[in-house]
Amino acid sequence: MTPSELLIPQWFQHLLIVLLKLSLSSAFPLNDTNGTACTARGPASYILVFTGQWSPQMFPKQYPLFRPPAQWSKLVAVTHNERYRLWQEGAMASPGVQSFAELGVTVELVKGAKEGRRRRVVGSMYRTAGIPSGVGHSSTELVLQPRNPMLSLMVKVIPSPDWFVGVDSLNLCEAGQWKDEVTLDLHPFDAGTDSGFTFSSPNFPTMPPENISMIKSQKPNHPANSFYYPRLSELPPLATIWLKKQPRSPIRQHNHVSNHILPQLSKASLYTETPLDCEVSMWSSWGLCLGPCSRGGVRYRTRYILLKPANSGTPCPELEEQAECTPYNCLVHQ
Q: Where is the signal peptide (predicted)?
């Protein structure tokens, strides 16, 4: 055993080695790109068109008509690399995602993007104006750099507890080339921070918060859910995103809030309308006997319509039922 081994315990030597490796890794960070590094020779300019397809024909259940009517918030888009996430299915919502999904407020999202730019993991943030109806278009122009080839975006569903549609980390650079055109169908997501079931549910915080999850035709499996369509295997797209690469990057500065309205460029929907079956309440209790108890008397019970049918859905059943009186439910006159 050498004199140095006598003075320094072996566990302490291992600790020094670990600390040395950590200091070197922080001084010279590894380029952990997971194969997502873009080797394109220059930036790419895209036009982005968001198309809302939230119509009463496609989504007739509890479709919001008043206070407020169905509409879309402003679109928030961020260009970034693999070390940044605006949002992620299966992960907890950040404070910025929570405030945007619940209230449509972008302050915390902007702060997060600015912090990402400081750390060189975010390129730029873009926003479009909101859409005052469930069906409509908004657009903006994007410039992506090879060091930030990914795109993430969010649009809040209004009204809703904490629901949104979005894109998570779409890589627009593949095999060293910018993609020419991309079209994506968008489905609703639950931010996991509010427990409301319907579009107009009051604020009811989820405690503890849950992970971000996709809303499906039978998930949550509850008839009160505004997107609950048990006859469907999957929901129709609530919106679409269309991205088209421009012939060359223009020299002029891009307008972050653009007025491009290009409905002919949106992807044609394969869906026409969604059938909505009638829903009725439970039967009431039987009423008292009307008429003579011995013979010919009848009693009634009723139920009411919870949800009217639409788009050739199953019609409502009878709302009133009668039955012959029996002695035990007859009134005895004194």
A: 1-27
